[in-house]
TrEMBL record:
Its main location: mitochondrion. Gene3D superfamilies: Bira Bifunctional Protein, Domain 2, Ferrodoxin-fold anticodon-binding domain. The lineage of its organism: Eukaryota, Metazoa, Chordata, Craniata, Vertebrata. This is Phenylalanine--tRNA ligase, mitochondrial. One of its GO terms (biological process) is phenylalanyl-tRNA aminoacylation. It comes from Myripristis murdjan (pinecone soldierfish). The keyword Transcription regulation does not apply. GO terms for cellular component: mitochondrial matrix. Monomer. It catalyses: tRNA(Phe) + L-phenylalanine + ATP = L-phenylalanyl-tRNA(Phe) + AMP + diphosphate + H(+). Residues 62-322 form the Aminoacyl-transfer RNA synthetases class-II family profile domain. The gene is FARS2.
Amino acid sequence: HLWTSSGSLPITDGPAPRPVIGQDSVEVLGASYPRDDFTNVTAKILDKVGRNLHNQPHHPLWLIKERIKAHFYSSYIGRWGNPLFSVHDNLSPVVSTEQNFDSLLIPPDHPSRKRGDNYYLNRTTMLRAHTSAHQRELVRSGLDAFLLAGDVYRRDEIDASHYPVFHQMEGVRLFTNHEVFSKVQDGHELSLFEAGGRRTPQKQETHSLEAVKLVEFDLKNTLTRLITYLFGDDVEVRWVDCYFPFTHPSFEMEVRFQGDWMEVLGCGVMEQELVNSAGAGHKLGWAFGLGLERLAMVLYSIPDIRLFWSQDERFLQQFRLPDIQQPVTFQPLSKYPPLHNDISFWLPEESEAGRESFTQNDFYELVRSVGGELVERVSLQDEFTHPRTGRRSQCYRIVYRHMERTLTQDEVRRVHQQIEHAAETELGVQGRY
Ligand code: PHE
């Protein structure tokens, strides 16, 4: 890896080779990718690649990962006393678009492929947008039960709960006919698959209803046990039907914690076409993907997602526990005062065929790459269309705050001016000052 391959060395300090965004190519994790018209990854984002917060001992994301591992290791034991689930946390976040989308049956024109929502190195290579990108390769490698933790990348707005890099834990389990029906009376007469069936809200066309119901029950049971282990016995859980191209039926799990329902994961019965293409066509499986920051923020009372990237000892030291099971409540660092500054500009004219030449995410991206960690929030305040010319203008408020010190007016003004300048030169907007 780019930073260090040794798991136990501190990897956040000291000089490290920097990823390079060149004229014709982008270098990341020691490989070089030719640029093309899809390239939109920024240096700020590439800086995060290789940080591997989930592998830094005692980091809160590592702590959650270790607790989930401990639960699966102790609760699911194979025939010879070995852990049933293998754990993978070192797969490169650089994946092909084929892995991230096609392998999961996401159609070529699906909105989740939008350039505005993802970080592309070029047309065929990207930073993974979810850990599901590895489902097919791990199933193909012969695994029947695995957990996979990793950093994932999505272009997003900036606020206390959204950050363009976060971490997910994926889980997959496959079952043979015998594994599904062995505990059922006369189960040997039942089958996972049926010919000539129909797809219904309950099941896929090739699956038998009885197999799906048992696998779905195992999935929900596994996840309810995991969440109860993390949150304690009083936690309330509910299931919401939803849609993913790679599972059917699909569910979201919501957890009621301190009065609020929050969505913690997506899951479902794996699409058989995916399982077949991974060479496990005689098995049926479930999969889930959960967000680690979400869980850590609630479990440890971490108020702002940007804190996960802090290298401030006052943050990190609070998670250095002798025992991963010990409860922690984060004591907030003193909050330094915010400063805000507004920016207004005329948008560029729409180009041919009504194609948008400016998107809000482009602006958020630009603010993030110029203002970095100083930017706490960007929000659209106001929009205006000139009655005569039809020109559109927007006004954004940028809230600046440093997590670790008080910012000066002067410092903020300089950054703000750089943002104004960059918006004009890079996005073709025209400032209204
Ligand atoms: N990959 C999905 C997401 O990021 C979550 C998911 C994983 C859903 C596995 C179903 C099965 O939202």
